[in-house]
Specification:
nine-stranded mixed beta sheet; 538 residues; alpha/beta; globular; single chain
Length: 538
């Protein structure tokens, strides 16, 4: 029988240690798991078209029925990502396994909204782990079999237990008070779509008490893949809806991420390579504080920060009033300012800023390192709700799909001394992100993934737009080079020397000029006389 998720199995370990060299070649493979942690809501959509909000005491008509559907940044991301894996994952060899997705969130499974979310996760084939269900002693009492014995291998590095001790103290206090807290409803949200823009009215429900320390630790460390045949195991942790979860601030998420990294690094030694990357989508801060320790505490632990231009402006304090940052000149200025801000705060973080119909730009080490333009169909959006979550899913799929094909030696953790060429993956991530985000705005609803055919068409459109941009850039560069060459052929000094004789009033002598004019006239007169006397001699 197969071992439980997160457990080792002694029989399989023994079989692995006795494998032939031929079988060993197949087992030296990469495994990529993605854990999404964040908010999940039941969304109630109100499509107002161009009517706008009703006046105080007034009323407006809604054409479409208002039925609750699954939503929330984390759940939207898990939905799109799971669909992408099913449609676009390719196996590199016989024993290869596709990426897997797990969502850790907080819901009330006994109410109607909670059941809607569970049904949605089952429909789109990803595991939803409810961190508020019977979680009182889950992390505390969970035990895992020891890793397989390995000879002639250096001991694993000792782990810093400080983050774990701090979490245990906090969790004990929370469990002591949990009995007195009445059950809360699953979070739900009214989504108002009007004039090609969306607004929200949100009741957090159980999400308001959801903390990073509530997450199931052994799932984050072992990722359902504690299989000794996977020697190169990469785990990506995506935090979605940071500002919707007050319990993740004040160092709570920071301690959790540090603890997970420490535990995985302790297992990464000898033949085993367990690498970890992280990403975060902040979402809009309804409190308008735009703090929560995100920049100072969490950002240095985040490898990819994904946000729109307005959110980037709020967090950095840089005044940005348009989603696409306005004109080309304004965009260049904004990109430079944002790149400097985030680089000073966290030099190892790739910052991905979405620009609506303009596409997206990647900022790293104080400059804009890559950009992409959205397909032209984006100019006529149907529903922009969830477009940022869809973009994040596409971006992560592109990056992790690239990572899956790399060895640990070629691509270690970001920021480590073995850091691999992650910049090569950014372009692939931007391409998928733009295609999936565009598909989302063309479809009503935030958690309705596009079909494979639609995404393939959009991926082709993205490439066509990029080719057009490259051609336009080449033409522009050629014109600049031509102008520079033309300017270089013209020597202003030589040109001025021809007319420098009378370059100023001080050098000009009127009598000398008249004498030269008379001499010139005499020479012309003599030439005319010679022509009349002897034309051949002339």
């Amino acid at each position: 029988s197969l071992p439980k998720k997160g457990h080792y199995d002694s029989h399989r370990i023994f079989a692995y240690l006795n494998m032939s060299e031929e079988t060993m070649e197949h087992t030296n493979k990469a495994k990529v798991s993605i854990s999404i942690i964040g908010d999940a809501f039941a969304d109630l959509f109100c499509y107002l078209g161009n009517n706008g909000l009703p006046p105080a005491g007034g009323d407006v008509r809604v054409d479409k029925p208002m039925t609750p559907v699954a939503g929330g940044s984390a759940l939207n991301s898990a939905t799109h990502l799971s669909t992408l894996i099913q449609d676009f994952s390719t196996t590199l060899y016989e024993h290869d396994e596709p990426m897997d997705v797990t969502l850790q969130t907080a819901i009330n499974e006994t109410d109607e909204y909670g059941r809607i979310l569970l049904h949605h996760a089952a429909k789109y084939d990803f595991q939803l782990l409810n961190c508020k269900k019977n979680n009182k002693n889950h992390n505390k009492n969970h035990k895992r079999d020891p890793p397989p014995p390995q000879d002639n291998i250096a001991e694993a590095p000792k782990m810093d237990t400080t983050p774990q001790k701090e979490e245990e103290k906090e969790t004990e206090k929370e469990h002591a008070n949990r009995e007195t807290i009445p059950p809360q409803s699953t979070g739900h949200c009214i989504v108002i779509v009007a004039n090609n823009e969306r607004s929200f009215m949100t009741h957090l429900g159980v999400i308001s008490t959801f903390k990073a320390s509530d997450t199931i630790l052994h799932e984050l460390v072992n990722c359902r893949s504690a299989d000794p045949t996977f020697k190169n195991h990469h785990h990506h942790i995506h935090i979605a809806g940071y500002y919707n979860m007050p319990g993740f601030s004040n160092g709570n998420l920071k301690r959790r991420l540090k603890l997970v990294r420490e535990k995985r690094r302790c297992q990464s030694h000898g033949l085993n390579a367990y690498t970890t990357t992280t990403s975060l989508v902040p979402q809009y801060d309804a409190t308008e504080e735009w703090d929560g320790g995100l920049v100072e505490d969490v950002l240095p632990l985040v490898d990819f920060l994904i946000l729109n231009a307005l959110e980037a402006g709020k967090i950095s304090g840089i005044p940005i009033t348009e989603k696409d940052c306005g004109t080309a000149l304004n965009r260049a200025v904004m990109f430079a300012q944002l790149a400097d801000f985030f680089w000073l705060k966290s030099p190892q973080t790739y910052v991905i800023v979405t620009l609506g119909s303009r596409g997206a730009v990647a900022l790293y080490e104080g400059e804009a390192m890559a950009s992409i333009t959205a397909p032209k169909v984006y100019d006529e959006p149907v529903d922009p709700t969830g477009a940022g979550d869809a973009f994040a899913s596409g971006f992560l799929f592109g990056v992790m799909r690239w990572r899956k094909q790399q060895s640990h030696e070629k691509c270690a953790e970001i920021g480590s001394y073995l850091e691999g060429p992650w910049t090569d993956a950014i372009g692939e991530g931007l391409r998928y992100g733009c295609a999936v985000g565009t598909a989302c705005v063309m479809t009503p609803g935030a958690s309705v993934p596009a079909s494979k055919d639609v995404l393939e068409k959009l991926l082709d459109d993205v490439e066509e737009v990029e080719e057009e941009n490259e051609k336009a850039e080449m033409i522009e560069n050629d014109e600049e080079d031509y102008n520079e060459e033309t300017d270089s052929d013209y020597d202003p000094q030589e040109h001025n020397e021809e007319f420098s004789y009378y370059s100023s009033d001080e050098d000009f002598d009127e009598n000398e000029y008249e004498d030269e004019s008379e001499e010139s006239s005499d020479v012309e007169h003599d030439a005319d006389e010679k022509k009349r006397e002897d034309p051949l001699e002339a």
